[in-house]
């Protein structure tokens, strides 16, 4: 039994193993039962059942009765019943039929012996089905009384209820924590007073966690304490408190604001039941989508400029009817350019779009959310244009998405570019070190220009998965300038809100933590203590080395977050959300509205808006489990690739130790799959390290197989129907998401094994010459890589009133220089004139953005002086797609004569800004 206890201990401690891990355990049990029923070893079955029983306590199905039946059959030595019952349970779990069929909850086989259809029960059946969820009940009632308590809850179910839920009972704070972490189907929690602190199971890592939270005595297991813990890890959950004391005092306690409602424990439990259903209904409601469905069913006469609405021009046509048949009638019935009749205006929402955005703000932890229907490129430009004006300085990651650069052009703001750490071996950049950002702020301060630095604009997470320590970045920058605006481009990271591990690294997650810290009286003491230690005039060197604490009394928290909802949630292409948490928003609301008017389409797509509404509903109700599954899929891919003897000979998925330099991994964390790593060590990394790696983004190195990224991407797409994301010179980016399944993993692994086998065969048949050619190719891709060019500087013509230590420039003037055809010239990349001018002058000044794909960031921006390293990089590039560059014409440059004519721009922009 010692091994059994050890297995249970590992499972209860390992929260990264989500739905897939649970399914694997059940399949293991069935296989062990099958072997036992055929005369095999019973001990293997007993061990599998013991391992499974611990965590199954935290799930509604199969529940106490079926688990007891399994244990009874095992104790009686009944292998046949053990096999039959475990098989029925697994089939019910796979098909989710237990959510609708009462027979699945019976220990007796009431069917006709046929194997049930393994398709999900909603497919191929027209009967309406009620969504199913589970409610966690935390109680001090002895476990011997739980069956009666479960029966009492089940009797509350009524045919008119919109949803069906199953109660899950636990008797301690630790078990409640484990249930919330392990069971993604929990949507509500009822917390009764009188429960204990400790789990019934020994779990050392869990002990360490509770100890770190100050939970050491039984008296620490208070209902409110548990409510705050659960709200922190699963903020989407509805929490209800049941108290037999002074409920009026408890309800009036500000600490109870995390609770949806407080009940007096002896009152009618039906009210609690109805409240649970109402809470889920609140999240289920999709104001815009619900109204759009009603609109589509109404007889509408359309006399507006949208002939496709109602679909008559499509379905009555002999020539385009196939489009209607392909998309279906509802798409056209729900089309309209109207903003009345139950619909709403995207530009001036006052009805259901406004309500949908308010629900999205709740879901994302923001003060307000804007729906955007033409992509996060537009969200970024809206934010930049609304928050910056001519002459303002923004510290910007040079490798950010082009929309930020173009936003600076539109706003007339001056970007002060900062560089990310390079990953030359893989032809990609990481993220910008905090020290670099702080140095830029301190330089601006030394130049007397800190007042003009208005914004920090960074990408989180990066294309390749680098995640900032968002809270630390904001706190340390606010310690230097307390009214900074932060724009976090989280296009690829919207799902992270729904993971308790990753949420802290999102802009809104960190902003909420900072806001809570500011309200804590200890924050002022921490700030003043550090100020005393630093002295009155600390040097820049000291400030750069110190983890700075801002003055909570001076902070003006201003945080903006953009998400490509379509990239990580169930939204239609171009669906985006812009989240706001800005204490000063009232001062910029008018100009923000102008930015919306500038960029938002006056003809937004109704289906796209509806998909944003629905994607919010899905993530609030099942996002936790979906994200856990996406992470688990990623771990499965990493493990399968890196441990397979054949595949790992030619391919590998890079771990955190390869993607994040050691100096930015202060915790010593190496990778999610490294020996000895569990959720606690990963959590320490997520809390402490300067940069972490998004587990769902996997850099698959293919250069060691002789393929460059573009080649390999094409091979996967054209031959195997596998689509991947970004490429680099010697890698491709694989991303798991809420859409992926274990079957997808199997397909990818099978393909990589096939390709690896073909390489093996080609090398074996080709002899020594083939081996030499292969090694040369691999060396070219993996060793002979071009150095990555840093941003040089803006030409002095575009520097205007710039300081001596800062490097910002007037990108707007540089951009419009290209509009003067006579003031531009072209030089082909291999023209000797380029080398002569690099050596002797005059300077080569870019007239436009040049963006190669990969790596996908501007290696030249308008007004930038082009250096030797940029030319060397361009000459070594072997990619086909380079935006802003035509190989036949060459580099577009601003002529020396044009630069001379422009001279230095007037320094009036800052004055105009100050006057306004």
TrEMBL record:
CDD domains: Orn_deC_like (cd00615). Transmembrane segments: none annotated. Residues 286-515, 558-735 form the Orn/Lys/Arg decarboxylases family 1 pyridoxal-P attachment site domain. Keywords: Aminotransferase, Transferase. The keyword Transmembrane does not apply. Pfam families: OKR_DC_1. InterPro entries: LL-DAP_aminotransferase, Orn/Lys/Arg_deCO2ase_major_dom, PyrdxlP-dep_Trfase, PyrdxlP-dep_Trfase_major. Its cofactor is pyridoxal 5'-phosphate. Signal peptide: none annotated. The keyword Oxidoreductase does not apply. This is Decarboxylase.
